[in-house]
Predict the structure of 50S ribosomal protein L11 methyltransferase.
Amino acid sequence: MSSPTIFTSLGEPYELTPDEVVLEKLRLLDLKDGELLFDLGCGDARSLIAASKMAKVTCVGYEILPVALKAAAENLKKEGNLDSIEIRAEDFFNADISKVDALILYLTRNMLGKISLKLENELPVGARIVTHDFDIPAWEAEKVVNFISRKATPFTLYLYRKK
């Protein structure tokens, strides 16, 4: 029996991304040491933790859902000494993304449409964005990957680069 889906105040579902999908998204971003990575709607922070193990990146996550913030704090504590990760209990629409090198998103297409103008206006040229299941309306993906999980669940991953 599965638990009911939790929704944010913006009506977005809170769902955990499978670890293997997290890793594939991070591989697509091709993170480099010294980069700044943001996760808008970081949930339990597993993506940021995994990223910090792949490269020496500074990670910032935005999250407003109390249950997700609690899970993120527990995951960070369990991992220990992760000074390179900061979680902000703030609305990501207020995030300063002007210096971001890479961005992780898992939002519905509706919310991606709402945030796309912010991405267009504020991200620096060359910034990379990865999302899955939902594409960013009016953006052309640089790469689309069809990924099948170990449980045979299909996922579509999208990589974008700000032009």
Notes: The CA atoms of residues 113 and 137 lie 6 Å apart. The radius of gyration is 15 Å. The helical segments are 19-29, 46-54, 66-79, 109-122.
